[in-house]
Every structure is written in structure tokens, then in C-alpha cells.
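Example record for the data management plan.
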Amino acid sequence: MSETALKAPRAAAPSGDANRWKALVFIALAQLMVVLDATIVNIALPSAQTDLGISDGNRQWVVTAYALAFGGLLLFGGRIADLWGRKRAFVLGLAGFAAASALGGAATTGTMMFGARALQGAFGALLAPAALSLLAVMFTDAKERAKAFGIYGAIAGGGGAVGLILGGFLTEYLDWRWTFFVNVPFAVVAAAGAYFVIREPEGGRNRSPLDIPGVILSTLGLVSLVYGFTRAESDGWGDTVTVSMFVGSAVLLLAFVLVESKVKAPLLPLRVVTDRNRGGIYLSLGLAIIGMFGLFLFLTYYLQVVKGYSPVKTGFAFLPMVAGMITGSTQIGARLMTRVPARLLMGPGFLLASIGMLLLTQLEIDSSYGTLLLPAMLLLGLGMGTAFMPAMSLATQGVQPRDAGVASAMVNTSQQVGGAIGTALLNTIAASATTSYIKDHIAAAAAKPQQQMVKLEGMVHGYTAAIWVAVGILALASLIAFTFVNAGRPDTTVVISGEGAEDEVPVPVVAH
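Corresponding structural encoding:
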């Protein structure tokens, strides 16, 4: 190992850029905007569908167009951030996201709406990895990094639930178009603040030529994978197009791995994902998101359809989960990250979330919010917040500065693909269980009110069947975190990256 490499920890000065905490405010604001957008539009979808005359068959494209562009272009967006500079990519991503949001709010046809959502996804794929990699290169001191990623992790975890509240308010009291327009002031403030405040560290760019074959193969492979799961939800797992998408995705992604192992300047250096800790984090995070994404949808429908909550009341019902995530991330994860190994936060965190999920398997039509939903949401939030925080930090810790963008993009990719899988897989399980229940019980219901009750019971039965699967998935995420992630405390171990590989060596770091 070179003398320069051994001096690397000394260069990671905790004093850093004086504006880094101000920069965190604008980075967090941008992250909140992206996370909000994932759920805020779902609340507005029924109203938008009616206004724009979108058919039931095509309405899924409001969600799918965003997911395909975002999931497919994330690795490319991360590499562009490494090439152009994270600050430039961040500001351009915000500007593009704002313009696409304004276009969506002004949409007069379904096609215009789908195009706006695809553009939001494309600029989100540039913005999200740039935001996370800026944190990675600006906060290098272990304790400061813990605080910064605690705030970021709380927003990443809880922003979706906040989107349900904001979406409910805007749709109920203003107009569905404001669920798009609201992004514009968010983006303008974040971009202006970032332009004047963020000072990206020198020498962190990756100026290697762009790996065009890697870009094409990864984008097409990820788009095929996300679309395959989206298609499976609506058309079934045995559908010819669905199967073709999965087969095509496997071939494309395998070809991508082969290309990346051969080219001189790969889009995704394999050293980023083959590292035991980062690999374990990408896998466990993806699994946790699979378990969580379906739950948001089930609980939203349960509260509105079964319990009769308004959109605003439904949003507020998710607040305990948000509070749990913020507490777990900033008060547990951030405080303990420099004292205990990451696996002792991630493993128990995912396990606690699975216990919260286990409570929800007891869901019935007349379940009490206070005695069942409230404690379940608190446990889920606490567990996920505690686990997310060290995961976000460790996923980018120790990577070469020139790889920070693609390492950050892999975090977002595991979440995005996990979300697509979770929505499709859990929805399919729920729908199948609901159909079977109604078929077995509808004959015994003579009157129309009884038949309606059977349908509601079938809906709840379907949710609990899917939630049982989510319990197992979260337990598996916990097991992977315990077994794969073996990094020590960040204040006693520094990962130093060489030119071709990475070695983990114990280096004493002065505590500040």
C-alpha cells in the first residue's frame, strides 16, 4: 500500500468545509422532494385519472413511467455525477425535476402526464445519487457522518409517509395538480442553496471515458426488470410479456457484469458491489424495501376502504411510523453508529421492523387503530430508522471518491428495484388470497350487506396473507445484515481504497 494511501485518513479532516451543515439542509430538502414524490402522486391519481380521461388500463403508467426511468437510469446518473461533479449534477437534477413537475401539473392529456412522469424519473436518477454521494465526500469524520446520515436516513425512510399527508391535503383542499406544482418551490430553494453553499472537495471526479456498452446494458436490463415486476402485478406472472421481460433482464444484466469485468473504465466497477459489507447492505436494504413498499399500499387501502378514513386522516395515521423512523435514525442509529458495529444496528433494526409487521398479521375489519396499528407502526418506524441510518453511511464509506456516485446509485437502485418487486409480489399474493377467500365464502352470504362484508373480509385476509410474507422478508434482511456486514466501528476502522482494490486496515482515528 502506498504512503499516499496511508495518509488518506489524515486528509479526511473533521473540520472539512465550513458550509457542510448548511449544505446538508439543501441536500436533505432535495431528498425529501424525491421521496415525497413517490407517494404524493398516488393519493392524487384517482382525481388526475378522471380529469385527464385516463383509462383504468393505462393509469398504472403514471406510476410505471416514473419507476422505469428512475430505476433504469440510476447507475448512469451516478456515473454522470462522478464525471461532471456532484454539485453540478445535483443542481441540474433539481432544475430538470422542477421543470418536469411543472409539466405534470399543467398536463392536459394522459400522454402528457406519462411523459412528465418519465422526465421526473430521469432527472430523479441524476439527483438522488448526486445527493447521497455529496454527503459521502463532504462528511468524513465518523461522528459528524453519523449525524448527517441520521438526518438523511430519517428523510429517506419517513418522507414517503409525509407524502401521504401532504398529498391528502393538496388533493382534498386544493387540486391534484398541486401535488406536482409543490415540487417547484422545493427544487428552486434547494438548487439556489446548493449553488451558493456546496463546495465539493477537489480531486473526486472520475474523468474516465463513459462506458457506453455498460450504460446501454444496465439501463435496458434494469428497465426490463422493473417493467417485468410491474407487468406481473397487472397481467400475472405467467404472462408471455412478463416472462420475456424477466428472461431479457437476466441476459442483459449478465452481459453487463461480463462487460464491466473486461472494460478499462467500467460504469460500475465490480469492486463497489463485491465488497462484503456493501454487497450485504445492498441486498438487505433491497429486501427491507420489498417488505415495506407493499405495506404502505395495503394500509392506505385498509384505512380508506375498510375503515372509511379520508385521505388527510389516512396521512396522519402514518405519523407514528414517521416519528419512529426519525427517532430510530437520529436518536438510536446516529448515537450508536460510532460505538457499535453496523450489523448490531442493522440486524436488530430489521428484526424489530419484522416484529411490527408480525403484529399487522392480526389485522381484522374491526381492528383498533390505538391497540394494533399504532404500536405496529411505531415498531416498524423505529426498526427501519435504526437500520437505514448505518446502512446509508456504510454503503458509501471507504469507496474511492471517484466511485462515490455509482456506489450511491447502487443504494438507490436496490431500493427502487426492491420497491417494484415488493409492490408486484405482495399485491399478487394479496389479490390471490382475497379471490380465494371470497370464492369460498360468498355462497353463504345471501343478502347484499353480507356479500359486501365478505368482500371486505376477503380484502383484509389478502392483506394479512401478504404481510406474513413481508415478515419473512424482513427477517431474512436481518439475517443477511448479521452475517454479511462485518465492518467495525467507523471511528476505529478506516477503509482505504487502492487503485485496483480495497483493503480494510485498522487505523486509529482521533475522536472529536
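Summary line stored alongside the record: The first strand starts at residue 493 and ends at 497.
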